[in-house]
Hints:
- By secondary structure, this protein is an all-alpha fold.
- It has a single domain (about 5-100), classed as EF-hand (Recoverin, domain 1, Orthogonal Bundle).
- It has helices at about 5-10, 15-25, 25-35, 45-55, 60-70, 90-100.
- α1 packs across α5.
- The radius of gyration is 13 Å and the shape is globular.
Amino acid sequence: xxxxxxxxxxxxxxxxxxxxxDGFNNPTQIYHxxxxxxxxxxxxxxxxxxxxxxxxxxxxxxxxxxxxFQQLDSNNNGIIxxxxxxxxxxILWDLLQKKQTSxxx
Length: 105
């Protein structure tokens, strides 16, 4: 099973994408909120904590945070840029659409 399929399988069907997307309208604010130690880095663990704040918990938060991080860190330097955070809602929306398509909604 691909990592994307694993992420599709764990994303909650009742996720409120609009609420999450609205939360990322100010990426600078989110970035500073996540970068608590001011080292200029957002980690997978930081993303997982953020997803948990939106009600995505446990294994789903773990897998989705890793998947999102992988998608955002396209140059594999281990750093997520502030502007990259704008794409979190789009990534989750894409996964949700694929989930709904695969289960015949």
